[in-house]
């Protein structure tokens, strides 16, 4: 399974609450409409109020305890071909313009970082390992 992971920051002048509200009520719907071959689409929003817990497991000298983004987005695709089809759709000049105009309303486009990953599922692997152990 292929997963696109993206981090983004809100644009100046937009509060965290405004950012999240706009993403969930407007931008998310655009993605679902145009990228209809995605398998799953999730957004995770940092919880600054829980920073002291993170500090136990990370370097407390990291700026803002590592909160370098306002949302972490994950989009799953069945395979690389499905990912490519989605990028072909999003690359259409008219569709791209719709997204650029929408994104300009709530996020800092220069802050967008995208990574394409091949996902492994730990629970599935643990189950297989347990079955092998039980069979021996």
TrEMBL record:
Gene3D superfamilies: 3.30.70.100. One of its GO terms (molecular function) is oxidoreductase activity. It holds the Pfam family EthD. Residues 11-109 form the EthD domain. This is EthD domain-containing protein. It comes from Novosphingobium colocasiae. The lineage of its organism: Bacteria, Pseudomonadati, Pseudomonadota, Alphaproteobacteria, Sphingomonadales.
């Amino acid at each position: 399974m292929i997963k696109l992971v993206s981090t983004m920051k809100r644009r100046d002048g937009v509060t965290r609450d405004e950012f999240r509200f706009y993403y969930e009520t407007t931008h998310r719907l655009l993605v679902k409409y145009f990228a209809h071959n995605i398998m799953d689409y999730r957004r995770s929003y940092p919880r600054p109020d829980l920073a002291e817990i993170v500090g136990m497991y990370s370097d407390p000298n990291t700026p803002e305890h590592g909160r370098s983004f306002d949302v972490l987005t994950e989009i799953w695709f069945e395979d690389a071909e499905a990912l490519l089809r989605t990028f072909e759709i999003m690359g259409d000049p008219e569709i791209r313009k719709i997204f650029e105009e929408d994104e300009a309303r709530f996020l800092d486009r220069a802050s967008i970082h995208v990574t394409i990953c091949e996902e492994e599922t730990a629970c599935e692997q643990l189950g297989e390992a347990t079955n092998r152990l039980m069979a021996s």
